[in-house]
Design a protein that fits this description.
239 residues; mainly alpha; Multidrug-efflux Transporter Regulator, Chain: A, Domain 2; 3 domains; two-stranded antiparallel sheet; 11 helices; 2 strands; globular; disordered N terminus; MerR_fam; MerR family transcriptional regulator; DNA-binding; DNA-bd_dom_put_sf
């Protein structure tokens, strides 16, 4: 098994190494703070097949930028995220209050490609290739409603679906066994939409942003509940 030092030489950091890099300038930084910023969409670290986060120099650069804006300019995360999203789209937005602007350091071709890929829609063939899924599996995912045909391309969420199904297939769990997940996701979305409807129906941008944040929070709580229920059942297997 590789050490943290080995991963750093390969340009990949674990969360402990990220904390070491940031703690000098931001003594209050914690792992939970970094995960919170990830949940809010400020950074998007890659994942290992086992689900562990892999942070790159670009992720650390973005974290340093976000933390400095929060500390020095007291900017809301929504404003910071909008700025970073514009950067990721290749735009050159005006500097934020205080004159701060994101100026990424020179990075490797691989890291540059990773950053570009995060905002690029994938074709169905690219989606399958990136997730390591064969044509038969991709056809089954479409047939059982776990994926839908998207002429505009597929995003990182679709990629997450396919990767999870590839790994489940290795355990003998096929797409036909997973149809209930699509139905459960639809029911959860109905629940979330109903809860945020009063905010989402307003026309002002601030209300729509709060609706989106609230929807993510409710969805996260639903996932926590689901995980707790399943893990509780699994724990009883050991008794």
């Amino acid at each position: 098994m590789g050490t943290g030092r080995d991963s750093h030489r390969n340009g990949v950091l674990n969360i402990g190494e990220v904390l070491q890099q940031l703690s000098g300038d931001f003594p209050q930084i914690s792992a939970s703070k970094i995960r919170f910023l990830e949940e809010k969409g400020l950074i998007s670290p890659q994942r290992t097949p086992a689900g562990y986060r892999k942070y790159t120099d670009l992720d650390v650069e973005r974290l340093r930028f976000v933390l400095a804006l929060q500390r020095d300019q007291y900017l809301p995360l929504k404003v910071i995220k909008d700025y970073l999203d514009a950067i990721d789209r290749g735009e050159r937005p005006e500097a934020l209050p205080g004159g701060m602007a994101l100026t990424p350091r020179v990075v490797s071709e691989q890291l540059s490609r990773e950053l570009a890929d995060r905002g690029r829609a994938l074709s169905l063939a690219e989606l399958g290739a990136k997730a390591g899924a064969g044509q038969e599996l991709m056809a089954d995912l479409l047939g059982y409603g776990l994926l839908h045909q998207q002429e505009s391309g597929y995003d990182e969420h679709a990629l997450g679906v396919v990767k999870a199904c590839v790994e489940l297939q290795a355990h003998g769990i096929e797409p036909r066994h997973l149809r209930s997940f699509r139905a459960a996701a639809d029911r959860q979305m109905d629940l979330v939409e109903g809860a945020v409807a009063p905010l989402a129906s307003r026309r002002d941008v601030a209300s729509k942003a709060r609706a989106a944040e609230t929807a993510k929070e409710i969805s996260g709580l639903c996932l926590r509940l689901h995980s707790a229920l399943v893990n509780g059942d699994i724990a009883r297997l050991d008794r």
